[in-house]
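ligand=2-acetamido-2-deoxy-beta-D-glucopyranose
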Amino acid sequence: MGGRSRTRWAAVALGVTGLLCAVLGAVMIVVVPSLIRQQVLKNVRIDPSSLSFSMWKEIPVPFYLSVYFFEVLNPEEILKGGKPEVQERGPYVYREFRHKINITFNNNDTVSFREHRSFQFQPAKSQGSESDYIVLPNILVLGAAMMMENRPMSLKLMMTLAFSTLGERAFMNRTVGEIMWGYDDPLVNLINKYFPDMLPLKGKFGLFAEMNNSDSGVFTVFTGVKDFSRIHLVDKWNGLSKVNFWHSDQCNMINGTSGQMWAPFMNPESSLEFYSPEACRSMKLIYQEPGMFEGIPTYRFVAPKTLFANGSVYPPNEGFCPCLESGIQNVSTCRFGAPLFLSHPHFLNADPVLAEAVAGLHPDPEEHSLFLDVHPVTGIPMNCSVKLQLSIYVKSIKGIGQTGKIQPVVLPLMWFGERGHGGQAAADVLHTAGADAQGDALRPVCAAGPGRCAAARPHHLPGAEPGQMLFILEW
Ligand SMILES: *[C@@H]1O[C@H](CO)[C@@H](O)[C@H](O)[C@H]1NC(C)=O
Ligand SMILES: *[C@@H]1O[C@H](CO)[C@@H](O)[C@H](O)[C@H]1NC(C)=O
Ligand SMILES: *[C@@H]1O[C@H](CO)[C@@H](O)[C@H](O)[C@H]1NC(C)=O
Ligand SMILES: *[C@@H]1O[C@H](CO)[C@@H](O)[C@H](O)[C@H]1NC(C)=O
Ligand SMILES: *[C@@H]1O[C@H](CO)[C@@H](O)[C@H](O)[C@H]1NC(C)=O
Ligand SMILES: *[C@@H]1O[C@H](CO)[C@@H](O)[C@H](O)[C@H]1NC(C)=O
Ligand SMILES: *[C@@H]1O[C@H](CO)[C@@H](O)[C@H](O)[C@H]1NC(C)=O
């Protein structure tokens, strides 16, 4: 196992979606009455002279990751075959920082980069602290039980012995900090000692362990400088033009962009496609309706009902199976065989039997659906909220040193939302720029309404002030 795969196992959660919920466009806004198309083209491509470049490189707008856990209230009853009862805890909120590193322009109209990310706990925005204790399914133990299914009897017996000796239980009581960023697990240490190649994991185990100060892998994307038609599309990820996690070519395709910007000049037939390294797949959001964000016209894109549908309900998803009920996606192959499933929070848009099987779940489109509001002329996100849930499939506790009989169930572990807070940032940095359309400078009209225009001061292009970018809007 290489270092890379170890990293990916240790970070079991689909921590960040790959969709950059960072409302890039809200940073600075300008209108140019003429030459719109050329100016937009010139300024949204990935090129150091483009206005969006420094914003692309380093995201200037704060954005936040909110994590909610599903605390298990009745572990003893579950182990006797009872219906699981959970209670949502959180949010535990982290400020997320991202910037691109190792940016290399290739000579074929592409650029390669990694995206570095780090997280910082925000006590004031959270309901609770990182030292709160929470009872959750023990992913390692339940995952091992599943992986043991087809292993030789001798190995199963050893595992059983190990589990009971180490006091490993099907449910664990740990702090938020441990669950997120990792804890030393005696089981992992033991297995690594005697079967060094069995687990793709060394050291600490946690849902987001190794996500802090990590990166997204190497993306190679089209810059749009020479050929505009493929602007922002992913050419390769980690050198691959398709992945091999799934069972069909269609599901293995790397489609769309890296999830931060899209081709400009959208219309209602446009969709937002992107590749998510954390979900190991491409996804597509569809147009829902036009709207306004802070005075800026936007298109709202949402998840189609079929995003996580199973192969019988939506045949193109067959390659993601073996599946269970519709609305949860088996991500086992991209999590080293752990029986994990990806869905909308509270099993929104999924077969209702899933939410009914666990007491305490209340799917609500208002609270649990995801959307991206994109400025259609530039293809830049203005406002977004991305929410996903991770669940574990529990089938049996045989062979993990515990007695009793559990009912097979998909138990939600946690869900998280990523939210860009662009509104205030937009209001804070709104400016206009003065210029003529001939040169580098532009003659803009303030974008966000007459009130703000009056307060805005002219700036010269490009760049005006460090960290602030000018955007060209038309409506
Ligand atoms: C990034 O570039 C530096 C210097 O070129 C190199 O030493 C480093 O290994 C690269 N890092 C990654 C993760 O590729
Ligand atoms: C462009 O060049 C990079 C670096 O040499 C390479 O990895 C990539 O496959 C090339 N892409 C195309 C479309 O030629
Ligand atoms: C992430 O790493 C940084 C730098 O090492 C550290 O300051 C920060 O506290 C870490 N975040 C979490 C949530 O552990
Ligand atoms: C979890 O552990 C903490 C600290 O040992 C303890 O205070 C708490 O009561 C435990 N919670 C449960 C549900 O057992
Ligand atoms: C990728 O795009 C192709 C062609 O549009 C489509 O058939 C396929 O389903 C897409 N794959 C994924 C995983 O979205
Ligand atoms: C999930 O997918 C894996 C790998 O394809 C498969 O072995 C497993 O049985 C599937 N899980 C369920 C519950 O269908
Ligand atoms: C797919 O989902 C439907 C609806 O939830 C369900 O009836 C069907 O059994 C599922 N298919 C598989 C293969 O599990």
